[in-house]
Structure formats: structure tokens, C-alpha cells
Design a protein that fits this description.
alpha/beta; 8-stranded parallel barrel
């Protein structure tokens, strides 16, 4: 088995998108990250992210923060939503998170990171996992020793993004250290690799070359929830197995899937305009629209549309003009 996980992404992995990715074969899905302090204060925007359904299981809920006590309290609140996994975010590189000492910022304060991890593990019965990066920058690649220390805290899995915090999302992900951790005889928990797995061939290569127990798919899923189906079909063909996902929604065109996501987003947001705006990230990044000739003005119109009728009319026009 070669598990493929939908990586946690803010403003992306809402329940609507998670359900679509699950349908197309994602073996585990993750929530958007949730601010621990906001959960403890019962902020509505944070507690709303605890919404999960049995249809999307196994599902992980991810939290972030910089204080062991509030992180432990938040984990107990999360546990009441009955996720299959509670994940700790030690990898978010954005300034508003890392710059305040949370997320990847904790790569500069390993004792605090480990204290948070122990506090969360001891506070709940649900399996606790961690997602982090290689280190703060190229001069501080601490992940090999850090992985062992996190394992000693009692986590059940470790996901590693093959970039430093300084890289943000630029450059190429370096999987060599991920492979080194997986092959470290002192490591006995599953290791999940993440970073630049954008094609079925690359997913297969990462499994074979680095031996990871699972792979997280992040930005490559934008506007493309069927990437899990395609990867599973490719991996099955390469490994001599069979893919039960290869025919999932085979009669449903990519454009129809995007339409379905729009409707799901409108329902999730409870407002037509908000749902449309929430969907734009997927329009902007979907491979469906990449490389289409003379598409610039249509793309601009699609990203400016504010009603369901406008969006669907443009999609129908695109489908007709480019013969999807």
C-alpha cells in the first residue's frame, strides 16, 4: 500500500475540498490549521474548523501555537470533535505565525517545541502527529536529531516538508534528509514525506527512492482533487497492483468537478458570493486551465465573477471552446 494524504492548508482544506479529495482516493485528509489560543477562547472562526464528517475519515485536525498549556487545552477541545489524529503544526513559515514563535518559528526554540509536543501527547488519548520542516535555514538543518527527539515525546507519526523555513515555498524540496530519517534505525514511527510531489511519476519515485510510509500532496491538489486518483492508478500500474480508484467519477469531467466544488463551497460558506471567492484559489491554480491558448481574458473574467450563474456560464463557455 502506498498512502497518499491531503496536506493541511489554510483556506484550502475545508470540509468541501476534503470530501472531494477523499472521493478521489486520498487516504487521509487534514483540516486547515487552527490557532490553539483561539480555540481556548472559543472564537467562532476557530471552532468552526472542528467540523468533520464520518465520510472523510480518517481525518486529522491540525493545531498550532507557542504555549504548551494552551496547546494541551486546545488538543483536549479538538479531541471532543473525535478526529482520528491530532496534528501539531511546526512547519508553517508565514510571518504572522512563524514570526510570533509558532509553526516553523519553533525550529528556533527546540526545547519549547518538545515541551509543546509532550504536553499535547499527555493531554489526549487520540494519536498525536507532527508536521515540520528541515530546519530554520540551510545553516541549521536540525531535522535528523529533531525527529528522534519528537519520537521520544510520544508522537505516532512525523511528516516532514523538505524545505527550511527560510525557503518558504521557493526552490526545490530536498528529500534526501527525509530519506535519511526514514532509514535511521533508531526511528520506528512512520515518516511522511511532503514537498513538490506534483505528478504520479514523482509520487512513485519518492516512495521507491526514499522509502517513506506515506506522501502528503499539497499545492498540486489545488483545483485538481482527482490527482489522488491519477497517482493511485499510476502507482498501481508500476507496482503490479490494481487500483480501485482509477475509474472513480471517470464519467465526470474536470469542469463538472470544479462546478461541484463551487456548489459545495457556497453551501459551506452559507453565502453565494463568499463561496465563489473561496473557490477562486482553485480556479487560479487548476491545471485544467493551464496552457489554454488565448485564455487570459477568460481567466480574468472567471476570477472576477461573483455569482454562481456567472461562474458556470464561463465554465460552460470554456468547456465548449476548448472541448473538455
Amino acid at each position: 500500500m502506498y498512502p497518499l494524504y491531503l496536506a493541511p492548508m489554510e483556506d484550502v482544506t475545508d470540509p468541501s475540498f476534503r470530501l472531494l479529495c477523499k472521493r478521489f482516493g486520498a487516504d487521509r485528509v487534514y483540516s486547515e490549521f487552527i490557532n490553539a489560543d483561539a480555540l481556548v477562547r472559543d472564537v467562532a472562526a476557530a471552532t468552526r474548523k472542528l467540523t468533520i464528517s464520518d465520510t472523510e475519515r480518517p481525518v486529522a485536525i491540525q493545531i498550532y501555537g507557542k504555549d504548551p498549556e494552551s496547546m494541551a487545552q486546545a488538543a483536549q477541545i479538538v479531541e471532543q470533535a473525535h478526529p482520528d489524529v491530532i496534528d501539531i503544526n511546526f512547519g508553517c513559515p508565514v510571518k504572522k505565525v512563524a514570526g510570533k514563535g509558532a509553526g516553523a518559528g519553533l525550529l528556533q526554540d527546540v526545547p519549547r517545541m518538545l515541551a509543546i509536543t509532550r504536553a499535547v501527547v499527555n493531554a489526549v488519548k487520540t494519536p498525536v502527529t507532527v508536521k515540520t520542516r528541515l530546519g530554520w535555514d540551510a545553516n541549521h538543518l536540525i531535522i535528523v536529531d529533531l525527529a528522534e527527539a519528537l519520537q521520544d515525546c510520544g508522537i505516532s507519526e512525523l511528516a516532514i516538508h523538505g524545505r527550511t523555513r527560510a525557503q518558504m515555498y521557493t526552490g526545490e524540496a530536498d528529500w534526501t534528509l527525509i530519506g535519511a530519517i526514514k532509514n535511521n534505525p533508531r526511528m520506528h514511527i512512520p515518516i511522511i514525506g511532503n514537498g513538490d510531489v506534483t505528478t504520479p511519476a514523482r509520487a512513485w519515485e519518492c516512495f521507491q527512492r526514499y522509502g517513506v510510509d506515506a506522501i502528503m500532496i499539497g499545492r498540486a491538489s489545488f483545483g485538481c482533487p482527482w490527482i489522488f486518483r491519477d497517482m493511485k492508478a499510476y502507482i498501481a500500474a508500476q507496482s503490479g497492483g490494481s487500483s480501485q480508484m482509477s475509474d472513480v467519477s471517470s464519467q465526470q469531467s474536470a469542469m463538472d468537478i470544479l462546478k461541484e466544488y463551487v456548489d459545495m463551497s457556497i453551501q459551506w460558506c452559507g453565502d453565494e458570493r463568499k463561496g465563489i471567492i473561496h473557490s477562486r484559489r482553485h480556479f487560479a491554480n487548476s491545471p485544467v486551465f493551464k496552457g489554454l491558448p488565448d485564455f487570459k481574458q477568460t481567466r480574468i473574467a472567471l476570477l472576477r465573477a461573483e455569482t454562481r450563474d456567472e461562474v458556470f456560464a464561463l465554465m460552460d463557455l470554456i468547456k465548449q471552446r476548448y472541448v473538455f
